[in-house]
Amino acid sequence: MLEILLEEPSAEAALRILIPRLVPGAAEHQDFELRKFNGKADLLRKLDGRLRGYSAWAAAAGVRILLLVDRDDDDCADLKKKIDGLAASSGLPVHRGGALWSGGTFRACIACEEIEAWYLGDPAALRKVYSRLPGNFEQRSGFRDVDAVKGGTWEKLEKLLQDAGYFSGGLRKIELAKKLAPHMDLEANSSASFRHFRGAVLGALAGG
Predict the structure, then answer these.
(1) Residue 2 falls in which region: left (phi positive, over 0), alpha (psi -120 to 50) or beta
(2) What is the pTM for the complete model shown?
(3) Domain that holds residue 157
(4) Name one Pfam family in it (predicted).
């Protein structure tokens, strides 16, 4: 069983679709649970208590805990160190690297800079859903490294879509997630943070 802690609803909407595609046969509430919070600040504020609760039973029950949080303006290494420190102080064994879980019960994944980088990492899926997008936007200097987009990843994605005639009233993140997730190529995403998360899920649910 895999418990995934998320900071907001659009990530939940995407993962409800993506995880069964990653691990065919995986069913929510049987193989995995999605636990969303009211934003990053809410997640981090409640995390210590939540992890201490897990430490009392998760390892014995064979449950693994995977946390997905946006880096935003934080330093990626510092944020992960802080989160791993909370897990360790709660008594949870922390994953220490590699594709497999290596005996760890808790693992943190940082979406650099935001989960929208995962969508930009699959331009073919974006163009399939939003056909008016330019055919070569991923070659522009600002999009070549989707995990290092300057000026806010979701803002850049919003502008890209608005310039093509979509979301004139503002990016609707949950709608985007639900439309895009069924079409994403799970093997070829250019986002390193997506590939890291994919490996964590496969390691927990598929043993690889």
Answers:
(1) beta
(2) 0.92
(3) 116-183
(4) DUF4276
